[in-house]
Design brief:
Order of helices and strands: HHHH
Helix content: 55-70%
Distance between the termini: 33 Å
Largest sheet: none
Oligomer: single chain
Strand content: under 5%
Number of domains: 1
Amino acid sequence: MTLLNVTTDNTRFLIGGILLVHGLGHGGALGALVWLRVLPDSPTGAWLAAKSWLFPALDTPVATSVAMAFWVVAMIGFVGAALSFWGLLLSGEVWRQLAVASAFVSLAGMIVFFGTWPALNWLAALGVNLTVLVTQLVTRWPAQEMFGT
């Protein structure tokens, strides 16, 4: 008796689910920025207004708009990658390119706006982005048979 029954279907569900949740997580970051823009003096937990350590001359409204652009692109890319992985959008083979491009966009935004996300969110996003890059650029996992066509 095994505790974990790992099948191709389970793995497909898990990989697509991680891509989808990661994309929707960028929607959460976008929502936090909208919240901060509309209600700047309200409590937001650990979310801070967009401020770039790399481009400190950017005022908050411009920094917020730039950060929103990063999160919108990453969100659309990861959701598209998940749907393509499952064979529901575009060709199943497109998911790799969407996932890699989205991981780079997400990482770039995380670097430019370092310190404005709660630490746990930042670490989780970093982990998924790096996992996507390693599995797609180094190991090319999973095999083509596993994702939608």
